[in-house]
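Hey L., structure's done. Input below.
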Amino acid sequence: MSDLNTQFTQAQEDVRQLPERPGNLTLLRLYALFKQASEGDVHGEKPGFTDIVGKYKYDAWAALQGTAQEAAKQQYVDLVESLKSGAAA
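Output:
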């Protein structure tokens, strides 16, 4: 397993141990980066207007379309590290 994959796996564990729950926009960013890193570009149908949370998640992931999976992993790791240090909220 590459070093980045190890860091990505560790970041997934670290995010669950944060002392404070991140804000909704940060949570959406984490979700989108995780999905892009693990599955690649968005797929499936966009949720309808009655599924507000699903729609926001889909849109956040779709905004990363074309981002390389390795780049998304690095951005995820960087974001989790900034959350751990208190630099982002």
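The chain has one domain: 3-85. The radius of gyration is 13 Å.

-- N.
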